[in-house]
Specification:
The complex is a heterodimer. Chain A is built from eight helices and ten strands. Chain A is of the alpha/beta class. In chain A, helix 3 packs parallel to helix 5 and helix 4 packs across helix 5. Classes of the chains: A alpha/beta, B mainly alpha.
């Protein structure tokens, strides 16, 4: 399958933007004002290299999604900034594409029309159609192109959502717990699919997850968010380079040890 | 609902392609290890819907038939005088007579024309202003109090002013109908737009949709069912306001037929006007209902 994907990619360089580096600089996000002010994130600084897959781990409610939303321009930080290849993010950023925890497909459109929503502006109809059908094939949905979202399973809808994000030729692909709502078996298949996709479209990926195994399986590097020293919101408490190259052996002893240590960082005792 | 950025908007979820897709899906599932396609989510098979529709029409005619029989019986037994309750045959006769003189056609045509023009303009204004107020907080703060106060004015209170400004003619009547059709559409659209799934809107915004494209791609399709409830209410209001306008000042139309028959003691024609209002009102509503079915199937 990978061979097919690579050859397809080789024939389709036009309009495909390359992976972009991302820097988070002193990011801080406070919700509310005055006495009701509530800091979620503070002093978050890290860099992601172009083409890198970075997983963001953290307990629920620690601001992982807020971090991604800041990169997409869906949310503005209270202080600091997100810089994508020398230009800071201001408002919805066309260089990013977002896949949410839920598929969030338009129920009145077919899967192919939903994927086409992701096409960048200025994309001709012919070019767009070709791209959409190529992406649907990439995520294994080519025979479901004309189905409505409610006519397919949750995993298939989530794959369509991934295809929609890829349609944008993103320099940075933002994935907010994209497989969190899927059953365990479908989740593993989707993780493998994401690796295939990353090989076919080697963009920068920021993956928010609460699943340590998923992070170990997919990422080049993992950052762990946790309570800041002063107790005001979350910040980066640990950065881990994941050893080995993908696809990684799910049963590797080295990864198992790392898994226990990461769980401990998240406040879960390893047994 | 044109969407320049999306080449697939003319593509429907086609039922007949579903079978082909489902067959292909089995092979595809084997190849990709994906789940097979579940059955399409439509609750009724096409045949089921058809037989259900066939059953609906006779069922809906039962009560009108009973009413007609009771009417006939009541007038035949002499329970009411002919002036109070003319028998159905006499009403039918009145219809034949007016039709023969060409008057009935004129009354129906002019009334329907007033309703259609007033409804279309009122509904369009309601849609535009309802969308503006529903989507923009500034527009809401600016316009909603004024529109709310205007809505509180009872419809008939406008009549003297409209006659003063626009004289007795088509303009004043159509304007009154526009007022009547505007408010149901305005209210339902502005409220429905405020309750569109925020997640869907956010997802669309994340993909660069904004302004008119966001409206036509996400927000309007999401409120299609609510828009049609508003349109159907507006159409009913349009007929109501038509009769109000024609009762007060007119020389043609079903409302004029009502008041003219009352003045001449022609109860048969009075009944005819009422029956025609019921039938034509229901017919126009049914037409809108058909459009609604199509639209809901297309967008919901």
């Amino acid at each position: 399958m990978t061979a097919v994907l690579s050859s397809e990619r080789a024939g389709n360089h036009a309009g495909t933007s390359s992976a972009l580096p991302v820097s988070f600089r002193g990011l801080r996000r406070t919700f509310g004002t005055g006495n009701a002010a509530h800091t979620v994130l503070q002093d978050v600084t890290f860099d992601v290299a172009a083409g890198e897959v970075l997983a963001i781990l953290g307990p629920s409610g620690c601001g992982k999604s807020t971090l991604l939303r800041a990169a997409a321009g869906l949310d503005s930080p209270s202080a600091g900034s997100v810089v994508i290849q020398d230009t800071p993010v201001h408002g919805i950023d066309p260089r990013c594409a977002f896949a949410f925890q839920e598929p969030r497909l338009l129920p009145w459109h077919t899967l192919q029309a939903n994927v086409a929503i992701g096409l960048p502006t200025g994309c001709s109809a012919k070019e767009g159609k070709a791209k959409v059908s190529r992406l649907l094939e990439l995520v294994g949905l080519d025979s479901f192109a004309k189905h409505r979202p409610r006519e397919v399973s949750g995993g298939m809808a989530q794959r369509a959502s991934l295809a929609r994000a890829l349609a944008r030729n993103p320099g940075v692909l933002l994935l907010d717990e994209p497989f969190g709502a899927l059953d365990a078996l479908t989740r593993i298949k989707m993780q493998d699919l994401l690796l295939d996709v990353h090989q076919a479209e080697p963009t920068t990926v920021l993956l928010v997850t609460h699943d340590v195994d998923e992070a170990l399986q997919l990422a080049d590097r993992i950052i762990v968010l946790g309570a800041a020293d002063d107790g005001q919101g979350a910040t980066i408490v640990r950065t881990v380079d994941v050893p080995g190259t993908r696809p990684r052996d799910r049963a590797s002893a080295e990864l198992a040890a790392l898994r226990v240590s990461l769980l401990a960082s998240l406040g879960v005792d390893g047994h | 609902m044109s969407n320049p950025g999306n080449p697939f908007l003319t593509g429907n979820s086609v039922a007949d392609e579903r079978a082909a897709a489902a067959t292909a899906a089995t092979a595809d599932a084997a190849r990709t290890g994906a789940l097979p396609a579940p059955a399409p989510a439509t609750g009724w098979s096409p045949a089921g819907v058809r037989s259900r529709n066939w059953a609906r029409l006779p069922l809906g005619l039962i009560i009108p038939a009973i009413l007609l029989a009771a009417w006939q019986a009541a007038s035949a037994t002499g329970l009411f005088s002919v002036v109070q309750l003319p028998p159905p045959a006499m009403v039918l006769g009145a219809a034949g007579e007016l039709l023969g003189r060409g008057e009935l056609g004129t009354h129906i045509a002019i009334s329907t024309q007033r309703v259609v023009i007033g409804f279309l303009i009122g509904a369009a204004l309601g849609l535009i202003l309802g969308a503006t107020v529903g989507l923009s907080k500034i527009a809401d703060a600016l316009l909603a109090p004024t529109i709310g106060a205007l809505r509180a004015v009872p419809s008939l209170a406008w009549v003297p002013l409209l006659i003063l400004w626009l004289k007795i003619g088509e303009d004043s009547k159509v304007t009154l109908i526009i007022i009547g059709a505007f408010f149901p559409v305005f209210t339902t659209v502005s409220l429905a737009l405020r309750h569109v799934d925020r997640n869907l809107v956010e997802a669309a915004r994340a993909f660069g949709l904004k302004g008119v494209r966001l409206l036509t791609t996400v927000q309007l399709p999401a409120v299609v069912p609510a828009v049609f409830s508003g349109l159907r209410l507006a159409l009913a209001q349009a007929w109501l306001f038509l009769v109000a306008a024609e009762l007060i000042a007119s020389s043609m139309g079903l409302g004029f037929l009502l008041i003219d028959s009352q003045n001449n003691g022609r109860t048969d024609r009075l009944f005819l006007a009422i029956v025609l209002l019921a039938v034509i009102g229901k017919l126009t509503d049914a037409l809108l209902g058909l459009a609604e079915k199509w639209a809901v199937k297309r967008w919901a």
